[in-house]
Design brief:
Blueprint lengths: L12 E6 L8 H10 L3 E6 L3 H4 L2 H8 L3 E2 L12 H8 L2 E7 L1 H9 L5 H7 L5 E5 L3 H5 L1 H12 L3 E2 L3 E4 L5 E5 L3 H12 L10 E6 L4 E4 L2 E3 L6 H12 L3 E6 L11 E4 L3 H12 L4 E4 L6 E3 L18 E3 L3 H8 L5 E7 L4 H11 L4 E5 L12 E2 L1 E5 L4 E3 L3 E2 H14 L8
Parallel strand pairs: 1-2, 1-4, 2-3, 4-5, 5-6, 9-12, 9-14, 12-13, 14-17, 17-18
Antiparallel strand pairs: 7-8, 10-11, 15-16, 18-20, 19-22, 20-21
Helix pairs in contact: 1-3, 4-6, 5-8, 9-10, 10-14
The structure holds cytidine-5'-triphosphate (CTP).
The site of cytidine-5'-triphosphate has 14 residues, from helix 12 and strand 17.
């Protein structure tokens, strides 16, 4: 699965709307993820979506009949669209055409999808996909701005190769982004960080040794990315500083890619004063080579030794600069005497919360999608969490930070 496999998707009632564009086939991937994550998925599609993808495909994947006609001949169904709108906990229209967006903004309900969309009382995510000229057309831009003003979550299209054969903005946002927005739509506390800035570090740093070699570790950034998704879902402004990784970072207000610990420190220093919360999830290299050589080191002897010098401790540096309104969260990777060592870090680095994990435990630590952690708070709180997806760990971290407890501990 992925670190997105949150319990919020489990048993969630999600209505997926598919409108007519070439990206319609990508809705399959979304439906598949949701069914796998335990959501109950219903699908509605427009007539033109049916030209790109068959209802049978969507029925098979969602395991439910697909809705597309306001007045099917077979049975009485005059209020199907209302029943479906009332049933849904969150709705995502992916892909959404310019036509659908235009109708939604103007209250036009002339087919099953647009009529249902007008009847919704739950959060709605709209993920547009279209030709780049259409996307940039003043009418589409105006309509999208209007939807945003009306609290519709717009998961904007990406830049890349379009079906027309050229590059431009208009591709449907990738699955990770669709899930990020849907997670926000399903979140029980979507405004709990509204007006706050959350600064996060994620992933590893790479310390160059020579042009071909680096010193690094196994971190991929998933835990930090999960924290960023969680902060986004709670309405925060998110600044995410991350090291090199193959994992796609979430969409945030400010994304800063760095390589070395020194660069990470500089990026964090730049944004720290605006931050209300700083979460330091990065696996920062404690040491770097004393010098980075301009030429490749040759294999001259049968032995060699490296001289290392210590890197700045980013979290400890911010702990010294911390103002009373700011909250600091650190991670403690420990393989022995975890609680004792983590409490020490909490104190020494001037933290409000420390997330203790042992990378040696099954399902925990680097590169995996789950984690098993203990949260230790400044006021003596201690919350042992079961094995959870990294996104659920992130939710628990914010719950404890904001309220001092989490329901996830007892589930
Ligand atoms: N950290 C940091 N800068 C460093 C090292 C660590 O900001 N140079 C942060 C990490 O992001 C994490 C916390 O400090 O939030 C603790 O990291 P960890 O590696 O567990 O501990 P260290 O402080 O490096 O101590 P040790 O390696 O001795 O356990």
């Amino acid at each position: 699965m992925s670190y997105f496999a949150s319990r919020l998707f489990q048993d969630a009632r999600v209505l997926v709307g598919v409108t007519g564009g070439i990206a319609a086939y990508k809705s399959c991937e979304l439906i598949r993820f949701l069914v796998d994550a335990g959501s109950e998925v219903r699908v509605m599609m427009t007539e033109s979506a049916g030209r790109f993808i068959t209802p049978l495909t969507l029925e098979t994947l969602s395991r439910n009949p697909v809705f597309s006609e306001l007045f099917p001949d077979s049975e009485f169904s005059g209020t199907h669209h209302i029943n479906l709108a009332d049933w849904a906990q969150a709705v995502i229209v992916a892909p959404a055409t310019a036509n659908f967006i235009g109708k939604l903004v103007n209250g036009i309900a002339d087919d099953f999808v647009t009529t249902t969309a007008l009847a919704l009382s739950c959060p709605l995510v709209v993920a547009p996909a279209m030709n780049s000229n259409m996307w940039q057309h003043f009418s589409v831009q105006r309509n999208v701005a209007q939807l945003k003003e009306n609290d519709v979550l717009i998961c904007e299209p990406e830049e890349g190769f379009l079906a027309e054969g050229y590059h431009g903005i208009g591709r449907l946002a990738r699955l990770e982004y669709l899930l990020q927005y849907l997670y926000r739509a399903l979140h029980p506390e979507p405004n709990s960080l509204a007006g706050k800035t959350v600064l996060i570090t994620a992933g590893r740093t790479e310390e160059p040794l020579d042009p071909a070699r680096i010193l690094t570790n196994r971190s991929t950034g998933k835990m930090g990315f999960a924290l960023a998704v969680e902060a986004f879902a709670r309405g925060a402004r998110v600044v995410l500083v991350h090291g090199p990784t193959h994992v796609i970072p979430p969409r945030v207000d400010r994304l800063v890619g760095v390589q070395t610990a020194q660069q990470m420190l500089e990026a964090v220093e730049k944004h720290f004063d605006q931050a209300d919360v700083f979460l330091s999830a990065a696996a920062v290299a404690d040491f770097r080579p004393a010098s980075s050589r301009p030429d490749k080191i040759k294999k001259e002897n049968s032995e060699m030794s490296l001289q290392l010098v210590s890197n700045p401790d980013i979290l400890a540096t911010m702990g010294e600069r911390k103002k009373p309104r700011q909250r600091l969260v650190g991670f403690a990777v420990e393989t022995r005497q975890g609680v004792q060592n983590a409490r020490k870090k909490l104190e020494v680095k001037n933290l409000d919360l420390v997330v203790l994990n042992n990378p040696g435990e099954p399902g925990a630590g680097f590169a995996v999608d789950t984690n098993r952690v203990t949260l230790l708070g400044k006021a003596g709180e201690r919350v042992e969490l079961p094995l959870l997806s990294k996104l659920d760990v992130a939710r628990a971290v914010f719950e404890v930070l904001l309220k001092g407890s989490t329901d996830l501990a007892n589930e």
